[in-house]
Each structure stands twice: as C-alpha cells, then as structure tokens.
C-alpha cells in the first residue's frame, strides 16, 4: 500500500505564501470568533487542542481556542471509571482463583475480599452506566450526534466489561456449587479426594477414629455448605444487577454487521430517530424472547396480541417456577421477576 | 493483493496516529469506499465520533475545536473548493487531509494558500480510490456510465471525465498493490484502448517515480476490456445467490434496499449483504438458488436448536448464560430473518415473472445453437401474457445477438412482434445494441463458434450434458481467464501498450471491464481463484451491472446519439 506524503510540499508552499500575506492580515481580528464554553470544573485532564503556536501568530485574529463542551468531562470520567473497573476486575479474577483453592477455615478473608471487589466493580459499572445517560441530551444536531456516538462507544466498552464480569462470576459460582456438591454428597467422595481437599487434616488418621472423624467432618461440611449457599446467593444477586446494566446498555450498543453499523447509513439517517426506534424494538424483542423461552405454555400465549404478552408473562412463569424443584428456586424467581420488570421499565 | 484488506489498512493508518476525538469527513465517492470495508462500530473504537459529507459539514458554523478533523476525499476541484472555504474559517482543532489519489501542484497551492490559520497538520495521498465490494471484485461507481458507448466526438469533456475517473481508479489499485503493470486492451474497443494508453502514460511517464517500486518479480497484467465484447452476460437472468439478488432486487455497495419490493419494518427495509461480515452469505453467495433454499433451511434448523436450548432455562447459570448469549442470539436471529426474507421475496418474483420458463430459453440462446427452435421459443414467450416487458426485450436482444447474420427476416419478425407487445420500449433499441455490440464490433469469441478449437470444445461440453440448465452459461471472461492461465491470450486481439511486454506468465491479473461488471463474472473470477492455478485474478468495472442498469445505459446512449446526429 503505497502512500505519498505531501505535507512537506504543502508546508513549503504555505510558508512561502505567508510572507506575502502578512501585512493585510490584522484586519479581520476579532471577527466573531467562536465562543468559549466555560465549565465550572477546575481540574480537567483534557488539554485544549491548539495547533496555533501563540508565539508566531499572537497578533493575528486566530480563532479563539474553544474549550471542549462540558460533556467531554463526563465522557472522560466514564472512561477513567471503565479503566478502573477493568483493573479491579483482573484483581477479582485472581481472588476468585484463590478462593477456589482447596482450604478450610480461613476462606473468610478471601470471601470478604471477593465481596468487596465485586461490589466495587459492579458499583463502578452502575455508576458509569448512570453517567452515560447524561451524555445524551439535546443541543445542536452535530453535537448531539457526537454525544450519541461517544455514548455508544462507551456503552460498548461497558457491555464487554459486564459480560466479562458475568462470565467470571458464573464460572466462580459453578465451581462453588460443584465444591458444595462434592462436600455434601457423601463421605466417599470426600475420602477419595481427601488428598486434594484437606491434606493437613487427614494426615495420619487411622481406622479407629474413622466414624467420629467423619461425623465431625459432616457437621463441618454442613456449616460449610450453608456458608457457600450464602455466597451463591450473593453472586446471584450481583449477576442480577449486571443483567440490569446489560439490558440498559444493549439499547445503546450497535449490533455489528447490521445496517445500523454501516457508515453510509449513519450519515443518511440522523441518529436520533434511529436510536429511538432501536430502543423500542429491543424492548419488544427482549420481552418476547424471555417470554418465549421461559414459558411452557407459550403456544397458547403466542396467539395473544403483543400488548398482552407482557402481562400474561408473570402468570405461567410463576406457576412454572413453583413446579421446579431444586436449589436456586428462589433466586430464579427473583431473576425472572427482575427481568420481566426491567423490560417494563 | 486483496482489495478489502488494502482499503481497511489505509483507513486504519489514517486514524491510528491521530489521538483523541475525531470527525471523519468524506465525499460522495469515498463514503462508498470506506463504508464497504469499515463499520460504524469500528470507527467508534478509533474515537471517530462524527462522520459527515464534505458538502454538509460546511452548513454548520459552530466551532468544535475539541475535535480533530480527518478528511478523506477524492482530489476533485469541487472538493478542493470546499476545503478552501472550510480552511479559511476553521471549526476543528486540527485538519488532517487525506486524498484518495494524486494531487496536482495547483491543488496543493490552493490548499496552502487557504490555510492562513495553519491548522493543517498533514496532507497525504492514500490510494483507496475504489469500492472493494468483495476480496477480488471492485467497482468505481462511475457516474454517467453510458459514456463508454458514445463516439468520442459527441461529448468530449464528459468522455474525458469518464476516462479520467477510470484511469485514476486503476492507478490507485496498482499503487495500493505497489506494482506497475504491463497493460493490454481489447483491440476493437476505442475506449478500452484510450484508457489503456492513458493509464500507461500516467504510470510510465507522468508519475513514473511514484510507480517505480523496484520490484524484480514479473509485472502484473492489467487487461482493459469492453463490456460490449460480452453483451450477453448482463442480459441474462441469474440463479446464483449474490447475482440473483442484484438482478431481481438490486445491490448497491453491499446493501440491498427492499423498500421497492414490499413493505418491511424500518430495520428490515435495508439490509447488508457482505461476504466479509456475514459467514452464511460468504459460504453461499455463489451457490445456486435451489441449494440456497436447502442451506437456509439448515440455518433455520440450527437457529431453532439454539432457541430450544435457550428455552431450557432452569438454573441461574442457564439464566446467566442466556443473557450472555443474548446478543449473539439476536444477531443470529437478524441474519436468519434477513436471508429468509430475501429468498422469499425472490421466489415471489420468479413465480410472478415466470422466470424459470424465460431463463431456460435465455440460456439456450446464450449457450447452444439451433436457430429454428430458438425462434419458436422466443415467439412463444413473446405471446405469453405473464412474461414481463423487460424479459421480452431481453429475449429478443439475446436472439438478435446470436442470430444477427443468420436470419435477418425472422429477426425482423421478432422486432415487430416486440414493438406490438411491449410498446413502452423505443423502437430501435435492439438495433442500437447490435450497432454497439454486434459481431463485427466484438473482440473474442463470445459464442465459441469462430474458432475451430472452441467449436470442438463446445461440442464436447454438449455431449457431456449440463448439470443445471439455468446456470450453464459461462461468461466470456471465463474463456479470457483460461487463455491467460494457459498463456494463449492472442496479441492480435489483446495488444500491449507501448513496449512493455510480459516477461513470462503473470501472477496477478487485473481485468477491468469498461462499462461495468456483473456478479456472474465476479463468481467466475472467485471460482477461478479457488483453483489455485498460480494466477490471481481481480475483477473491476466502471459500475456494477444488472440487466436493468445495462439497458438503462443503452437507452441513455441511444437517446444522446439520436439527439446529436443532427449536430454532428
């Protein structure tokens, strides 16, 4: 891919012309330069872009260096938050790995750490998501298009981060449940991987003390499983929170490969109208898909009008959940309700 | 030498070194070039938060100095004028100017003169001056594409513009590949000859420094041919996926507008059909219509499978997984419904216009002899009420091209019949086609009946039988590529420009069809490349034809040459 850089020639011409031009130059000084937009924030990481060297052209009526609009600060703040969330997330995944390592007793510390980190990341995501809304507001057409695009781009980042967090959590959750199952499933299993799970404790136990030891262990594992249950519940809740964030974001993120992702389409169609339509569309799609796949009685409800679907959802799903019979029931109900509710929101 | 990735690389290089928020400003031509290879979400990743056309950006006066402007424009005089005005009153923090082709020094002077505020950071030439619709197929979307049919005396300035655009496009292709080709053209075409000579002059004289890449390998070949050497291909109905969509609905820069086919919801009204972004399309774009039906059925089945697994949500993990996979799921859903819609709509059209029936005769006319039977078949179809006007016209044209010399009397009868059945066509259009692309004007052996070797081969093919009557036609391009592969492209028919001859067999060949390419030819090129014969072919044209646009060019050319016969 050949390219040719003409900048040198261009600058030479420009410099040559400058000397000719200088005298008549001052006349258009102060000719309605762009207005400086002031923001009340003192600290800004943003360096105003000035390509004009004040030394060479100070007396010339160059355009006033416009400060960027206030929303630029917001977007930078969000970007910084995303950055922080990302680094916290990698800490979290390390903590997960550590917590899953076989150990009894002092898992509490890890647990707290995980809780704290999860909270921080989720909080950062939630905060960013809330700030993100501030970006879209009226104003001149071009500016609002830019904002919308900045918003989209940040939303895409946020979404991928949320997905990552969720993946990590559900992986952690799965491992937790597996461990729980193993520890409560029976002693045999425990015996078999005793080497893996509790090396130090099992060291040197003999045939005689077997059943007592077992009893003690059983009790321990009961307590342990209660504890784990709680953990699972916690993770479940944060998954739930994430689902909310995801849903809010998905209205902003562009589906790749679709017409909305085409550059020329975006030029033709002024962003505002597209976005609104998209939002509505996704709302409908989300509700109907959740409904479609959760309810066994979907054939019946499918025939109902679109508007009815939303309300008729709760009924069959609830009765359905009642018949489910395994751990996590209550969580599932919670989740379902939340998803249904948030589609209404 | 892959077109799509070259343009993508150019765009990447434009954007990567400019940090911060950017606005990308394009013109009506570069917007196509960028849109087919780069997506909006990719632009967002590069912090391009506004994309505008160069004429629209001057509407607003508001300052946006927090944005850096990246211009990517063709170096036309209108664009330079736009820039001149915009540089005089800068709105953006800095200006980075990229041009899709060579700037002359006058243009550079104008720009330098208007940059009083010294806001321009760089001026570069990035040669992405073509629309890379597929990896081996490009178009130039040349305006007034009928120009190639007009004699040079009718409208010299516009013909010059037309040639310039094509020469620019060809220059950009070879600059993007960093190669300088040897150039050949089809002997009987004035316009192909002119373009070949102008390209050669540019590459070997005017800008010989720019084109000197000091490469030691064998030079690639640029072959400039004329659409009128093969007027049959753009007149045929198509039965492979991509070609068929273009023929029946229309593809523009890899987008399909369903607006005039039926009523669809807003998000379905226009769909993207790109081999780069859509795996299903990539796998099936060259398959025939029957197989597409099967593939789509499989895709729907797969989708239902996924839907079913999503239905079985019992635990939180299932739930989490479902929400995770939801974007993917929705994408799949969108794709399934897109292809189902396209195929359904095309089936309707096929049924409505009795295209199976029509196409059988078309293929017979294009591929096999037997004038008596052909005459009867065409006559019957002309009498058939359900055959549409455009199909009637095409049948008569195909008959005329084939039996131009053999049976003038019967041809006359068909002309009259067509005039009485389909009065909306101006009389003489078929005759105009013969004048333009009749047997005496063509280079190459379109029907494989001039050369004893070709006749023998056609007979052999006839004996073998054909797999599918609807797709038996091979464009003339297929033979041309075969000749090049075997090193048998005749110097008499396809002379070299100047004294730059081919030293040995080329590894890369760009075939440019003045007047436009078809997707049938694109398919032929893709299949040829998949054989790994050691030669890679790239196909390009001034425009992307279907029968409708080919006929429109023909009508326009006829109208102009009629109105100007009095003058000349």
From TrEMBL, chain A:
Compositionally biased region (Basic and acidic residues): 193-202
GO biological process, one term: defense response to fungus
InterPro entries reported in the protein's UniProt record: SNARE (IPR010989), Syntaxin (IPR045242), Syntaxin/epimorphin_CS (IPR006012), Syntaxin_N (IPR006011), T_SNARE_dom (IPR000727)
Membrane topology value: Single-pass type IV membrane protein
Keywords tagged on the record: Coiled coil, Golgi apparatus, Membrane, Plant defense, Protein transport, Transmembrane, Transmembrane helix, Transport
Annotated stretches, region: Disordered: 177-206
Classification via Gene3D superfamilies: 1.20.58.70
Sequence similarity: Belongs to the syntaxin family.
Name used for this protein in its record: t-SNARE
Organism: Artemisia annua
Upper classification of the organism: Eukaryota, Viridiplantae, Streptophyta, Embryophyta, Tracheophyta
From TrEMBL, chain B:
Pfam families the UniProt entry points to: Sec1
GO BP terms, alphabetized: intracellular protein transport; regulation of vesicle fusion; vesicle-mediated transport
Cellular location(s): Endomembrane system
GO cellular component: bounding membrane of organelle; Golgi apparatus; SNARE complex
Keywords carried by this UniProt record: Membrane, Protein transport, Transport
Primary residence: membrane
Membrane topology: Peripheral membrane protein
Family note: Belongs to the STXBP/unc-18/SEC1 family.
Protein name: Vacuolar protein sorting 45
